[in-house]
Amino acid sequence: xxxxxxxxxxxxxxxxxxxxxxxxxxxxxxxxxxxxxxxxxxxxxxxxxxxxxxxxxxxxxxxxxxxxxxxxxxxxxxxxxxxxxxxxxxxxxxxxxxxxxxxxxxxxxxxxxxxxxxxxxxxxxxxxxxxxxxxxxxxxxxxxxxxxxxxxxxxxxxxxxxxxxxxxxxxx
Length: 172
Ligand code: GNR
Ligand code: NI
Known about the structure:
Blueprint: H1 26-41, E1 46-48, E2 58-61, E3 73-83, E4 87-94, E5 97-107, E6 109-115, E7 121-127, H2 128-141, H3 152-169
Antiparallel strand pairs: 1-2, 2-3, 3-6, 4-5, 6-7
The structure holds ligand GNR and nickel (II) ion (NI).
């Protein structure tokens, strides 16, 4: 178990398209353990492998509020089957876009097919925050960030801020 560094925009690696996992083996399970550690350490509710630089179609999530009752979820090779016509709006944030938040519309319900931690096929019907989070994480697998849904102006302002915040951290 290990906490990894989370890549942040404008790091180009975040724009890679992640590759399907052939088999859920020891290596993938270790990756999922590290992803969960990293996500909890950063106080996030979801994390895609590409956020720690690994271009595999793997997501971890825990939307439980109670710190003592952890409910980790693991999704390998997730595919969205059914999307609701109806949309809901959530104020989204992203560990790869630190300290920036915006309201994003997404289908309010979805069905997702995936392999779990043990490589067993699963089907999940999600709604509410779970549905939003799954879609946010699935976007990461395609190299998409929530800021891509904002106007060009809002997006460029956020990227500018993040670039500046990054350069401020480099001590010459
Ligand atoms: O921690 C996170 N919170 C969140 C809130 C609303 C919608 C999506 C998210 S996911 C985010 C963690 C993250 O960046 N996952 O990729
Ligand atoms: Ni994110």
